[in-house]
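Figure 3 (text version): structure tokens given as input.
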């Protein structure tokens, strides 16, 4: 969009009007569909003196808007040049991370909240880059998700998760329950994800429920018809499906009715305030109530205090994760801490 002879204030007002117009829900086949928009702005002549430079800088500002949570606008600034350059260098390094053996998995335990017995785990990807040091998932996962790189990383995670499950079995310390791996929408819609999981399960002689997939609430809203088909095929193979971040976006109960979901996760921001904020407690209780009504199980994230644990027990939340119960650790440490007969003392 080209605006002529306008001030920065007028540009900002125009950008906000666009955001407001596009963010209104659309009703398509009796489903409410929400669209978020990221807008980047470059101004002549300060940000460039020809259309190519202006477009490139506006594009950089748009990526900054995405990094700031999407559904907002950002003006190009000189600081963005270094940020975008850093992002490109990270992406280039990430392409070589697998071959350079820079990636590894850590495992966060999941416990039954009543008995505190170990009932599963979540595999989390970590990147220790030779050039950048430890890069946080919040920094490199969005980069991977915006390209087909997430397909390669996702398959690597599934393969390593299956290998680790098999290793624990060989060592006489099999994981009770399911090991969940995080899956992006691009993997579900553009990759033979089910075939990959089945192949890894067969290769390592693991039962179907050994590996489950965890997807975000936002993923459910993307290409709803195709997503429904893919998830139903996965569910038919007895592979558990969990929804993460439920209640943090444009939640729709109709999605839960349409999709074959086994687990709902209570996001850590609601668990964090469950003992001090009535609204957080109410939302957490509502998520658990929906889960029970739809015959799902509820997993609470981010349990850090005994008071939070007790509050979740009072609402009969099924299971949970968090630093109070167990931090993400290496496979070897996980077995030592959580797969021994004396788990309480180990912890």
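Below: residues designed for each position.
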């Amino acid at each position: 969009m080209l605006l002529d002879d306008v001030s920065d204030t007028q540009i900002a007002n125009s950008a906000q009007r666009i955001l407001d117009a596009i963010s209104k829900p659309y009703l398509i086949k009796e489903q409410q569909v929400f669209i978020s928009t990221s807008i980047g702005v470059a101004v002549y002549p300060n940000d460039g003196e020809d259309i190519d430079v202006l477009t490139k800088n506006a594009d950089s500002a748009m990526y900054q808007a995405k990094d700031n949570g999407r559904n907002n606008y950002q003006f190009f600034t000189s600081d963005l040049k270094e940020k975008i350059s850093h992002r490109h260098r990270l992406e280039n390094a990430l392409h070589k991370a697998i071959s350079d053996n820079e990636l590894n998995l850590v495992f966060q335990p999941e416990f039954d909240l009543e008995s505190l017995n170990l009932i599963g785990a979540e595999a989390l990807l970590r990147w220790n880059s030779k050039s950048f040091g430890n890069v946080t998932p919040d920094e490199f996962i969005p980069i991977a998700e915006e390209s087909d790189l997430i397909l390669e990383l996702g398959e690597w995670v599934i393969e390593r998760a299956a290998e680790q499950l098999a290793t624990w079995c060989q060592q006489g310390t099999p994981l009770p329950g399911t090991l969940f791996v995080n899956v992006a929408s691009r993997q579900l819609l553009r990759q033979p994800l089910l075939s990959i999981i089945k192949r890894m399960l067969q290769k390592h002689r693991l039962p179907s429920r050994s590996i489950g997939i965890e997807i975000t609430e936002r993923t459910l809203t993307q290409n709803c018809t195709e997503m429904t088909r893919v998830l139903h095929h996965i569910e038919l193979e007895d592979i558990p499906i969990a929804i993460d971040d439920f209640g943090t976006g444009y939640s729709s109960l109709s999605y839960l009715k349409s999709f074959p979901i086994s687990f709902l996760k209570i996001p850590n921001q609601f668990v964090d305030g469950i003992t001090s904020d009535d609204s957080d407690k109410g939302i957490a209780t509502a998520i658990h109530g929906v889960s029970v009504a739809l015959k799902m199980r509820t997993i609470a994230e981010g349990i850090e205090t005994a008071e939070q644990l007790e509050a979740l027990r009072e609402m009969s939340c099924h299971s949970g994760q968090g630093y109070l119960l167990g931090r993400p650790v290496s496979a070897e440490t996980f077995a030592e801490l959580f797969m021994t007969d004396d788990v309480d003392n180990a912890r």
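The domain at 93-346 is CATH 3.20.20.450 (TIM Barrel).
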